[in-house]
Amino acid sequence: MPIDDRLQLALDHFARAQARLVEVLAQPEDDFMRDALIQRFEFTFEAGWKAAFRWLRARGVDVDEDAYSVIPEAFKRRVITDEGGWGQMRKFRNLTSHTYNEMTAMQVAAFVRADAVRLLQDMLDVLKARADE
């Protein structure tokens, strides 16, 4: 199946966001860079689940356009392999986008460095590989 234009746009957006996240991860962490890391994490998480949404919709899957609905469906269809990790990302994204707490920010930054960047890249790789299915 040829790739849908909206899916291609979402994949391009996700890939750019992921590249920007990796870029900030290469910097030494201080308060400023931690805030930049969290902002880029939020942005990349949003781009990721929206790309998954577009991938699902292009295959005729009737799923609501929210992360809470998309993540389980993406897991079911093997677009993501670690549903728990994605659930943790969703939880951290919600925490950081609604309030600021320095201890939480440190936990989120550690999670992004240890797990989130890999989870996001894994899904991006799968979406790209399966875009023409």
UniProtKB/TrEMBL annotation:
It comes from the Bacteria. Keywords: Transferase. One of its GO terms (molecular function) is transferase activity. InterPro entries: HepT. It comes from Aquabacterium commune. SUPFAM superfamilies: Nucleotidyltransferase substrate binding subunit/domain. This is Nucleotidyltransferase substrate binding protein (TIGR01987 family).
